[in-house]
């Protein structure tokens, strides 16, 4: 069984690839490149291809099928960058990855705390030897109402860990979870938007969730609300967010993900003009924190993603169903 491994991240993935390659009996060829129509010809003779977040459209999926690829395996939880409909029609299996929810959950809580206590402006001013207290007064998360939108594995972990801070927790999801009710209260979307001092997004990005937070939702929020997104950039209407920040409706935003981040994040663009104008605008605001989609990035998560990839390839090559096969 042979796996072609795109977007290889060097030594940090290498040690896990070696371990799980031997465990599952998978032959692996790696490249740091992202898949393109020009370089996918090298997939001939391979059973599976591993990717990260590069868009795989119908044309690319069709060519992969023609080259003999049985499965496209993404080393991410979300599969919104893959044309799943085309894969189903072509008979190509799509698999995702699973990893412990703690990394993303705790990163989201860190962003909440940094926003509450204005950590980034404080650090920037300190670097300029401005040690005054001007514009550095924060708020305490312990007396805040935190709204958690989406109570899947990550959302539930956020809620459980937040409970130790003593804050009031509101939750929203179309499916309620009994564990969540130990720590917080389920409410409808509008109630959460209206009552929360801090809102954190953990809903999946599906077609119906595109711009889950837009102009209408911002209008329902408290003035000065803190908004955190470690889920998917497409959940927020970025233009509406910029307007909400400029009017003071959003007091602070902390975004690990962003609309149109493909081709931007995971690359060294030090000496290049950024092709995302909205990100440049957001970066100019002193009350916005932008991190480049790294909430998941821990040793535990990398190990899990690599193992999921090897496990899926081994299963597909044997004609078995992978435990990470995406429902299509």
Tell me what you see in this structure:
The chain has 328 residues and is α/β, with parallel strands linked by helices. It has 2 domains: 2-99 and 298-317, NAD(P)-binding Rossmann-like Domain (Rossmann fold, 3-Layer(aba) Sandwich), CATH 3.40.50.720; 102-290, Rossmann fold (3-Layer(aba) Sandwich). The chain contains 11 helices and 12 strands. β3 (48-51), α2 (58-66) and β4 (71-74) form a beta-alpha-beta unit. α1 packs parallel to α11 and α4 packs across α6.
Biggest sheet: strands, sense, closure?
Answer: 7 strands, parallel
Radius of gyration (CA) equals 21 Å
CATH architecture heading of the largest domain:
3-Layer(aba) Sandwich
Q: Count every beta strand, where a strand is a DSSP E run of 2 or more residues.
A: 12
Cα separation of the termini: 23 Å
CA-based shape: globular
Quickly count the helices.
11
According to CATH, the homologous superfamily of the largest domain is: NAD(P)-binding Rossmann-like Domain
User: pLDDT average, as an integer?
Assistant: 95
Low-confidence stretches: none
Whole-number total of structural domains: 2
CATH class descriptor of the largest domain: Alpha Beta
Helical coverage, percent range: 25-40%
Order of helices and strands: EHEEHEHEHHEHEEHEHEHEHEH
Strand order of the largest sheet: 8-7-6-9-10-11-12
CATH fold field value of the largest domain: Rossmann fold
Q: What is the beta-strand fraction?
A: 5-15%
Kindly summarize this structure in a few lines.
The chain is α/β, with parallel strands linked by helices and 328 residues long. Helices cover 34% and strands 15% of the residues.
């Amino acid at each position: 069984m042979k796996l072609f491994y795109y977007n290889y991240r060097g030594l940090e993935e290498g040690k896990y690839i070696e371990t799980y390659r031997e465990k599952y009996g998978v032959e692996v060829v790696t490249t740091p490149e992202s898949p393109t129509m020009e370089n996918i010809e090298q997939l001939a003779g391979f059973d599976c291809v591993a990717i990260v977040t590069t868009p795989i459209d119908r044309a690319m999926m069709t060519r992969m099928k023609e080259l003999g690829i049985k499965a496209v395996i993404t080393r991410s939880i979300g599969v919104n960058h893959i044309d799943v409909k085309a894969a189903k029609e072509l008979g190509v299996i799509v698999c995702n990855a699973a990893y412990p929810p703690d990394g993303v959950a705790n990163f989201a809580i860190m962003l909440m705390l940094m926003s509450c206590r204005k950590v980034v402006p404080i650090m920037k001013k300190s670097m300029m030897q401005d040690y005054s207290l001007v514009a550095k007064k924060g708020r305490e998360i312990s007396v805040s109402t935190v709204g958690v939108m989406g109570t899947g594995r990550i959302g539930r972990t956020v809620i459980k860990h937040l409970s130790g801070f003593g804050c009031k927790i509101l939750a929203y999801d179309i499916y309620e979870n009994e564990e969540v009710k130990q720590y917080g209260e389920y409410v409808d979307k509008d109630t959460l938007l209206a009552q929360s001092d801090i809102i954190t997004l953990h809903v999946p990005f599906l077609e119906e969730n595109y711009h889950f937070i837009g102009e209408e939702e911002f209008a329902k929020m408290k003035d000065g609300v803190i908004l955190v997104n470690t889920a998917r950039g497409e959940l927020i209407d970025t233009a509406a967010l910029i307007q909400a920040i400029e009017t003071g409706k959003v007091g602070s935003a902390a975004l690990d993900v962003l609309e149109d981040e493909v081709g931007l994040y995971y690359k060294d663009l030090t000496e290049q003009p950024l092709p995302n104008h909205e990100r440049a605008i957001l970066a100019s605001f002193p009350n916005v924190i932008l991190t480049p989609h790294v909430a998941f990035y821990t040793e535990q998560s990398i190990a899990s993603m690599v193992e999921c990839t090897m496990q899926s390839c081994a299963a597909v090559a044997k004609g078995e169903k992978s435990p990470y096969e995406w429902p299509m």
